[in-house]
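Key idea: predict the complex, not the pieces.
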Amino acid sequence: IQMTQSPSSLSASVGDRVTITCRASQDISNSLAWYQHKPGEAPKLLIYATSRLESGVPSRFSGTGSGTHHTLTISSLQPEDFATYYCQHYYSTPQTFGQGTRVEI
Amino acid sequence: QVQLVESGGGGVQPGTSLRVSCAASGFDFSQHGMYWVRQAPGKGLEWMAVIWSGGNPQFYADSVRGRFTISRDNSKSTVYLQLNSLGVDDTAVYYCARSFCAGDCHLDYWGQGTLVTVSS
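Result:
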């Protein structure tokens, strides 16, 4: 299953609403997670099962979708949200990642 | 708290082998599947392999099947990735991650990674 993430990068201002899209090459139901990755740090789980917020993750992060089309939304971008974001399906192995979206503040 | 600490990375020559390790703490290791994911310089995350809690089954990405082997020692709370026949394209930071299952199984906690550099 191929995961196509868009855009590959974006520039936004603090307070902006940001949406990242992930498309699967076949139906993955809701078996999709989103991760935030900052340089030199461990990737951090934000959302799993398409829309379930991981414990401790701010509520400005949300996920929607089903089937082949999934989105991550940051409702009001904060300075600490500068990072690269990845989607990943876990519907079957190999559990491939999208190419990543670099968010610049 | 959950901690995953990778080790064993370093500089090696093409064609050689290396074993990287991931020591886990803060949770019942024997109840969780474990993953390896890598990130080549300037590239995105690449899923490598998974091993389930009892040691079987294991699954691999096409790019490493037959060259890399994932294993675990539940008595030591450690997961391993044996890397054989290394090529320059295997240069990457290698991360281990824990599997959390709630219906489906996804990666929740990750380590900081260990760098493997393959160069002549």
